[in-house]
Amino acid sequence: MSVRVQTEDFDVSQEMLVLRQKNPKVGAVASFVGVVRDLNDGDEVSALTLEHYPGMTERSLEEIVSEAKSRWNIYDALIIHRVGTLLPLDQIVLVLVTSAHRGESFKACEFLMDYLKTRAPFWKKEQTSSGERWVDARTTDSVAAMRWETTDDE
Amino acid sequence: MKIKVLFFAKLREVFETNQLVITFTESDNKVSDVLTALRHKEGVWAEELNENKSFRIAVNQEMVAEDVVVNDGDEVALFPPVTGG
After folding, report:
1. A150: in domain
2. Which residue range is the domain that position B70 belongs to?
3. Residue B15 belongs to what H/E stretch?
4. What is the CATH number of the domain that holds A86?
5. Considering the domain boundaries, does residue B45 fall inside one?
6. Residue B77 · residue A54 · CB < 8 Å
7. What is the pLDDT of residues B69-85, one digit of tens each?
8. pTM of the entire structure?
9. Contact A121 B58 (CB under 8 A)
């Protein structure tokens, strides 16, 4: 399965091994790991709770993976996104992409994260020293996603 | 016809519910009619679903615009712009 939404942590090297072992033609594996920080918008963050829309989340992530596969010459991709309560230093999200050469993997990996940030139904709530608050969507994330709509990527 | 409406994140908290059902007496309804029905509940509903507020709409788990047609049994979801990753 190329998409997983789970409360448990993940082991990057184990996931990487599984993803590339299937195919001896793989010459490149690109990875991205998102991690919880202890600071956001000037406030200390002690915990993060991730809510999602079960069903739509998996579906939207699978669509994003299909889109990446149609745009770049990649062999496989994996997205793992955690939900529930997470603490600073915890891993939140993993994106892995395999291809013959690095260029395709790098581009597809960045595309997957940019699209995930703006299309997959996850919401973060932060626990800060001044109380709980929902994280606002960032314009920079929309701008990052938009560049994939205007360029040819070749 | 009946439309199930789900709420997530901040909207779920402010509305103090994660879902409700809207019944339309006539057919040919759009997402915008669902929003109008919810705004008629006034208070936080009218406030959070005001046109100047930023929220997203999904119908049957696909993000859509307000002019999309809804059919009997459809699942509509309203939620804030997403913040995963």
Report:
1. no
2. 2-79
3. helix B9-15
4. 3.90.1170.40
5. yes
6. no
7. 999 999 999 999 999 99
8. 0.93
9. yes
Give CA separation, A92 vs A11, A117, B84, in Å: 12, 12, 9
**B-contacting residues in A 67-126 (Cβ below 8 Å):** 81, 92-93, 113, 116-125
**Which pLDDT score is estimated for A1?**
64
Could you tell me the pLDDT band of residue A152, with boundaries at 50, 70 and 90? low
Neighbours of A121 (CB within 10 A): 26
Name the band, by pLDDT with cuts 50, 70 and 90, for residue A96: very high
Q: Report the domain count for chain A.
A: 1
Quote the domain boundaries for residue A70: 3-145
Residues of A in contact with B82 (CB under 8 A): 117-123, 137
With beta carbons less than 8 A apart as the criterion, state whether B74 and B3 touch: yes
* Nearest chain B CA: its distance from A24 CA (Å): 30
Structure token pair of residue A125 = 């709530």
CATH number for the domain harbouring residue B46: 3.10.20.30
The partner residue sitting opposite A81, judged by closest CB among B6, B81, B84, is B84
Is residue B85 in a domain? Answer: no
Domain count, chain B: 1
Chain A to chain B, count of Cβ pairs less than 8 Å apart?
72
pLDDT by residue (tens digit) across A29-76? 999 999 999 999 889 999 999 999 999 999 999 999 999 999 999 999
- Average pLDDT of every residue of chain B: 96
In this structure, is residue B72 part of a structural domain?
yes
